[in-house]
């Protein structure tokens, strides 16, 4: 049977790159891409770009106008019947990833949207695999070792992004009871380890934006925490996801796509300083002081950094990835070391730091 891949989250960066890898693996595959009506024109351009780059032909891609938050994903009944027989793999990537997102928006997209996708998946007659993109940070404010088998342990959450992704994963965990489901929990995603390419300057890129604002002054460390920060390049996420989508029963479960050997946040910050502005920090400011400053809207907008980012540089969680390493290691898929790709990441940032499409609007 020909593979038919159903995606939410297109024309997003990760979805587009996953599709490229899937076409390389299976040139005869077809793609059913659920797209919000507001994104249809952008999606049409994205498909043309994929085909122009040699990723498939226009006939392999179908854009479906729909909405994950609506009943039956707002797909017409007649076409929904066709999908029930045709779809073999579902990749659910659509979500609100903004750390500063209001609760009502996050809940509608991340929780209700996942609930509706789950109902759709249950209708499929030839499902081989559902891949759900969660996050390692469903662990919330827990500290210490976090296992792939753990989820509901009474944790609190640093923001509405975390809490709604946690609620969404609870829904998908229920699907695991009788469906072939893979839950992906990435760490903080960086750009491509070989090219530096990324779609948005968020996460650790906020550090680069902060340094842009103060590069002419002596640079501080932010806090004295010994916490480690878990960064993973996008190409590792892609390679792991495509492998797991075709790995059969051993892919049933939850996988931390995290760095098994993460560096201290202080060391990561220092290396970014050296690569971006050519000097090391020479003194330390309390993290609470920076957090208070970022509570002031004018300062936050000046440095272009979200307040919620600071918490991830003092996160005391350690993400065990034993199962991911076991399954992926057998296929030769490993997370690249941070120091092997940070120069590429900074070079890409330097080349595109003024691109408005890559900027996160900080309010």
UniProtKB/TrEMBL annotation:
One Pfam family recorded for the sequence: NAD_binding_4
Residue intervals passing through the bilayer: none
CDD domains: MupV_like_SDR_e
One MF term in the entry's GO annotations: alcohol-forming very long-chain fatty acyl-CoA reductase activity
Gene3D superfamilies: NAD(P)-binding Rossmann-like Domain
InterPro entries tied to this protein: FAR, FAR_NAD-bd, NAD(P)-bd_dom_sf
Coiled coil feature spans: none
Thioester reductase (TE) domain segment(s): 8-238
GO biological process: long-chain fatty-acyl-CoA metabolic process
Protein name, entry field: 3-beta hydroxysteroid dehydrogenase
Species per Swiss-Prot/TrEMBL record: Tumebacillus avium
